Amino acid sequence: MAEFGWVWLKGTEGNQSDGRDSQAPSKSSNPQPYPAAPYRYTSPRIHTAPCTGTLLGGAPTLGAAIETRKLTKSYKRPGGVTNVVDGIDLHVEEGEIFGFLGPNGAGKTTTIKILLGIIYQTAGEAFVLDKEVGDTAIHHLISYLPEKPYYYEHMTGMEILKFYASLFGIKDEAKCQSLLEKVNLASDGHKTISQYSKGMQQRIGLAQSLLNDPKLLFLDEPTGGLDPIAHIEIRDLILQFREEGKTVFISSHELSDVERICDRVAIINKGKIEKQGRLEDLLAGGRYEITADVSEDFSSKIKEADTHVSWKNGRLIVDMPDSISPNAIVEGVLGAKGSILSVIPRRKRLEDLFVETVRNVQP
Amino acid sequence: MKTIFSIAATTVGEAIRRKVLLVILLIGLLFLVVAPALNILTARQERTVLVGLTLGVIQLTSALIAIMLTVYMVPNEIERRTIYTILSKPVQRWQFLVGKYLGAVAALGMMIGFMTIVLLITFALSQNERHLANLAPLIKAPVMNFFQMSLLSAVALMFSTFVSPLVNIFLSSGIYMLGTLFSPLFQTLVEAPSVNNVTKLFARIIHFVLPNFSNFNVQNPLINPGQVLVDERLYFITTIGYAFLYIGILLVTAVLIFDRREV
């Protein structure tokens, strides 16, 4: 049985409901001229634990990998003070992959630098793994892969790992070797960084970020500028981190990757968080396309709001928002002795949401 | 300490591969090798000229290396984002800065050491001085030169925490020249009856604040055997102590500035 889309679940109506079903208009509040349907929508996404954080001030929320409250970073510029990060409230749960999106200059890297303690906030609070940023004790538990990183070119892959391991006080050469294997560089560990391709450099970057077995990884554009194979390899590694229980905070412009691997996202623009939440919730508002073989006079019975009806090659095509359950129309078609040819959910894409969010904010 | 040494070792590896430094070193070595041939241009005693010329070459070359090595050290780490991968590890900023400095000093020491070896070989071959006892006094100058350049590196490192490399080149070079030339000038200024008290006070402040690089120049007794230091050992100890004290002050200042700096 398919795991995604519409599936027939005869006899299961009512005892397996999800959030989407519960939001559909009930028969009592919005009477429909069709009988109930024996099917339901199933989501392809694995749901993570719901956000339990509260932003009340004081101590950080338990279970939050990252939490910021009214985090602000200002710079004095010739025209006055500019808020590069403008009072943002971020909440990242432990064990999730969190996408931090925004156009260039939105404040993504600045936020990451504040969270790493590399630069200091002007106002607000920031906590990483329950500790206030700036506490270098948390650096034993986190790691960072910057955008377009540079590694000392005269050193070999193995020497780079040994160097970064020494910063943690780790002398375990076997660990460095196992990390080279993990990122598929086992046979290239003796080559100098100058001999590495861009993808290999990115992989050695990921390897150095895993030396301390971090609980939280900050990845800034981890797949930027990579060829498709290297791209897929890095993406698979990131998915592996989640399976290992690590929290991953990704800043990326590769929206298809983010949509594929992230549990929750935040969109920042001009220093402000414009959207934040679970991808399912943010991408809600898609549409269903129902194709049916039914008599032409059936179309006059369709009265749902924002629903478009058309005919193509003698077949009925109904385009309706996913906020309305398509059960009623399917039941109606079946009741009219017609047949359903397909029910296709057309999900909103992250790219659409991103463009819509950023364009709405642009002056 | 392990962290500092790791950073220092990496800095040495980077420094000895920087082409601009190697070119400066190569030119310096070339001058050392051809120096005996330049004696024909002077009527003075051959050995005196050779000592003055070769030690001058070492001083100038090492000053250029010290400045070019140090002014780009921290800015390059920031520009190439290497600093982010280091500071996101359990590394304090002072550890990073001290590690970079020690790495620079170690690289400088290696380069000055290499020039000293070439200097000794040049003397051994051109002056037919095969006995170590004759050559040993020559080593004093490069040793003091090393401490002088360590101090110059600390000056450049301190400036590199808040000014651009280009500005730093001018600042550090300027301070080195002032610190080398001002001391003899200061004596003349203070002793001259025609100079007013305000100028003398101003001169004293500059003399106190500026690192006194001229103290490290011990070529004179080597060039003119008639000149001797009254207590050479004490002079060396106090001068090296002065270098350590000044370097310490400069590093603390650099750390204080760098700790507040946004990278």
Tag the structure with descriptive keywords.
heterodimer, A: 363 residues, alpha+beta, Rossmann fold, 17 strands, B: 263 residues, mainly alpha, 11 helices
> In whole angstroms, how far apart are the ends of chain A?
48 Å
Uncertain segments of chain A are: 1-56
Major sheet size, sense and barrel closure of chain A: 6 strands, mixed
Low-confidence stretches of chain B: none
Count of DSSP E strands of chain B?
Answer: 0
Strand and helix order of chain A: EHEEEEEHEEEHHHEHEHEEHEEEHEH
Helix coverage percent of chain B: over 70%
Rg of chain B, rounded, reads 20 Å
Describe the sheet with the most strands of chain B. none
**Largest two-chain interface:** A-B, 34 and 23 residues
Q: What is the CATH topology of the largest domain in chain A?
A: Rossmann fold
Percentage of residues in strands of chain B: under 5%
Helical stretch count of chain B? 11
* Whole-number mean pLDDT of chain B: 89
Structural overview:
The complex is a heterodimer of chains A (363) and B (263). Chain A has two domains: 5-44 and 285-347, no CATH class; 64-282, 3-Layer(aba) Sandwich (Rossmann fold). In chain A, α3 crosses α4 (173-182). Chain A has a six-stranded mixed β-sheet with strand order 9-10-11-6-12-13, with helices on both faces. In chain A, strands 3, 4, 5, 7 and 8 form a five-stranded antiparallel β-sheet that branches. The longest helix of chain A has 16 residues, at 228-243. Mean pLDDT of chain A is 80; it is low at 1-56. With 363 residues, chain A is α+β, with helices and mostly antiparallel strands. Chain A has helices at residues 19-23, 108-116, 157-167, 173-182, 198-209, 228-243, 255-261, 279-282, 327-335, 350-361, and strands spanning 5-8, 39-42, 64-77, 80-88, 91-93, 97-101, 123-128, 131-132, 142-145, 216-220, 247-251, 264-269, 272-278, 287-293, 308-312, 315-321, 339-346. By secondary structure, chain B is mostly helical. Chain B has one domain (2-260). Helix content of chain B is 78%, strand content 0%. Chain B has eleven helices and no strands. The model of chain B has no long low-confidence stretch (mean pLDDT 89). The chains are: A alpha+beta (363), B mainly alpha (263).
